[in-house]
Amino acid sequence: MDIIAAKRDHRRLTDTQIDWVIDAYTRGVVAEEQMAALAMAVYLNGLDRAETSRWTAAMVNSGTTLDFSDLGKATTDKHSTGGVGDKITLALTPLVASFGVAVPQLSGRGLGHTGGTLDKLESISGWSAQLTPAQMRAVLYRVGGVICAAGADLAPADRRLYALRDVTGTVESVPLIASSIMSKKIAEGTSSLVLDVKVGSGAFMKTREDARLLAETMVAIGQDAGLRTTALLTDMTRPLGRTIGNALEVREAVEVLAGGGPADVVELTVALAREMLTLAGLPDADPATALADGSAMDSWRAMIAAQGGDPDAALPTASCTHDVVADRDGYLVRADALGFGVASWRLGAGRARKEDPVQAAAGIELPVVVGEPVRAGQTLFTLHTDEPARLDRALAALDGAWKVAPGDSGEPPAARESVILERIGG
Ligand code: URA
């Protein structure tokens, strides 16, 4: 109660108080209602830099930590705060690994309108997210890139606290979000980290200022923990690339690995790879070359096969598709990320509760993206699902989420100049 009262009354928490409360909560000594009160006090009154770093360290220390320092390779990783059509990890991990750097990527599943990397990869026949720490180490050593599920013993305090925040209105707190994300990345044992902090309607952070604050807070936590960390703020006002949904996004990531793919996905993949390779001691490495010459693709195939997947297997396709067509000539001037994310979720690509299944083939293809010209009758978007009953609700989510304006309307086509808005740290 002293700790709750201290934060309620705007006082700093001491290191001892933070260590004790996180440890006691993990052991079940601090009750859920007490931790809920403390989370609300933190939500309202904040944590300063030293408190946030200590809070993060306490959550790291609540469980086991992985250590790859004896692997004989530099380690680096990327974390995205989540967006719509964000399939970047899929191509980025094998791309960076193709330079001899180890990428120990512990990923999650999707919840709500943002997808999860593990759900996407599970659309590949045979691929498994469940690796023991020994298996993970073996794949890292042999292949360089590994993407798998975090064990329950990794930052267990965060697991409990996140579930509690979710039902107590305390998720949207910068120190709590930053410490939650960073505790998992620090425990994962990478020695450097690049953060992709999304900004816009489809992202956690809706404004540039909020995203910058979150990025700066995470970079500071990384520095305080001895983890070389940088961040990019990137646009999430519209979907990334031309696909949303699990198997559809895998298909697009493979296009990028084959040297093609949408310009924004390629730009972000290459930029994040440069950041990661620089942090891993290879500032002169050229990721674009590895996409063009097939070495990133070789690395992808080895990574998928090492986790039981068949990189040559056909990806699942949906039994039902529905086209949305343009009713006039003009330009696509708007495609709102949140509307498209919710529509894809309703088609079956995402889940509402942690235990729900997802459809591998559900999602949306976007043959036209913002800034491109369209003709009346042309397909703008194709909705995919295995359950036709889901179409109406998905179409309702798209209502008002996009706009075609005639070329003479004076409304600019607004093609995206760069998906990268700002770089922080380093
Ligand atoms: N993602 C996390 O892992 N934690 C948060 O608090 C928010 C998003």
From TrEMBL:
First-level EC class: transferase
Keyword line: Glycosyltransferase, Transferase
GO cellular component terms listed in the entry, alphabetical order: cytosol
Keyword Transferase found: yes
Pfam families given in the database record: Glycos_trans_3N, Glycos_transf_3, PYNP_C
GO-annotated biological processes: pyrimidine nucleobase metabolic process; pyrimidine nucleoside metabolic process
EC number: 2.4.2.4
InterPro entries: Glycosyl_Trfase_fam3, Glycosyl_Trfase_fam3_N_dom, Glycosyl_Trfase_fam3_N_dom_sf, Nuc_phospho_transferase, PYNP-like_C_sf, PYNP_C, Pyrmidine_PPas_bac/euk, Pyrmidine_PPase_CS
A GO MF label: 1,4-alpha-oligoglucan phosphorylase activity
Gene3D superfamilies: Nucleoside phosphorylase/phosphoribosyltransferase catalytic domain, Pyrimidine nucleoside phosphorylase-like, C-terminal domain, Transferase, Pyrimidine Nucleoside Phosphorylase, Chain C
All residue ranges annotated as the Pyrimidine nucleoside phosphorylase C-terminal domain in the record: 331-405
Keyword hit for Glycosyltransferase: yes
Similarity section: Belongs to the thymidine/pyrimidine-nucleoside phosphorylase family.
Subunit note: Homodimer.
NCBIfam families from the UniProt entry: PRK05820.1 (NF004490), Y_phosphoryl (TIGR02644)
Protein name as annotated: Thymidine phosphorylase
Organism: Corynebacterium terpenotabidum Y-11
